[in-house]
Structure prediction request, 422 residues.
Amino acid sequence: MKTLDQQSAGAELGTNPVLSPDAALSKERKLAIFGGEPLFKEPLHVGRPNVLQRELFLKRVEEILDRNWLTNNGPVVREFERSIAEYLGVKHCIAVCNATIGLELAIRAAGLKGEVIVPSYTFVATAHALQWQEVTPVFADIDPATHTLDPEAIERLITPRTTGIIATHLWGQACAVDPIAEIARKHGLQLLFDAAHAFGCTYKGQRVGNFGRAEVFSFHATKFLNSFEGGAITTNDDGLAERIRLMKNFGFKGFDNVVYIGTNGKMTEVCAAMGLHNLKRIDELIAINRRNYEAYREGLKNIPGLKLLPIGEREAANFQYVVVEVDEKVLGVSRDQLVKVLHAENVLARKYFWPGCHRVEPYRSYYPNAGLLLPCTNEVAARVIVLPTGASLKEDNIYTICELLRTAYDTSAEVRRASAVL
Ligand code: T4K
Prediction:
């Protein structure tokens, strides 16, 4: 049997980022931030798409073209939906064009109105999906240990106008499902989950996709399981599934009968083919991410001031985000200065989800004081960096990135001076 490294090397992964010829890390090497040559010739992205065994995917595309059925609930979309439902052990899966539209459909079909409690520390699409449906997102704080919604913070924000909660399973790990579900039950609130990051993850041994009234996944190109663009809504509620199916197809029930205000949320056949192709390789994709995560853990373990967020210690996780917290006082370099060091070397680390939804428009104008109730969100958003991972990254690249971070620590005084003038 091939090792993961061999499989990765044999797969078509796009261009592998290689070290610049004379830029190997050594004591004498000048960091690019000081004018040295960047360590990597090509940018290393956090969300490089995984495309394994391209020829098999292209064969599926040929079949679609031969069939001349390109979208509108075609056979590949139906197979993708069945396969997801089976994998998750959920009754219904409705494939959609992306998770943002998926969230809007779920919000509308579940009848959310007035105010809905969401984390501010999430991708802005979670809040936008509500606002787009003219529902007010009310931002609750997070647990700094997991970066996901703090159940106690939710309860403090419930008003007579509150109709629901949308909790995000962040970074490929489930949020505190049971305590949040208990609050929703106690107050008669609807509960949806933004599961964009959490395909393949479990909570108390059960796969994410089965909780609340519905959960919404993303299969965007940057997700470890991608369908170019795409998403899926999963639910065990027959009535809700039926409404979502109608709503995603303009509200059509039969040829000429429109029964709802609907939209166009359909997934295309080619997108479903990509999703299905990747779903068949899901164990391999998770194993690659896990290998990367372990390599980072090893590489970062002796660098003071950098803490890898623990993932997958008690539950199944997909390891698709490598999240590191920067303690400026210990490292001697701030998070933003560290990002400058990395970007100069072509390591395009991201500051997800800086600055938090409450500090971007329109929310910062609508609720200028929201941050007063979000101390943990503000702190976490200021110290997180997300590092590159995925199938296109080699283990060596990871150790090089870690050495680079070590150099930033060793030369922190110079880094602070250099980044001040950039
Ligand atoms: N809820 C949550 C919690 C989410 O994180 C997201 C999306 C959603 C909901 C909504 O799901 P979708 O509607 O998208 O299905 C990216 C993604 O665009 C976004 O899907 C994702 N979350 C978010 C966390 O990251 P950006 O704008 O920060 O990064 P982007 O798209 O520029 O990609 C990151 C890097 O990946 C790029 O620097 C380059 C590289 N890349 C990207 C693409 C698209 C490639 O190498 N190839 C590519 O094809 O949002």
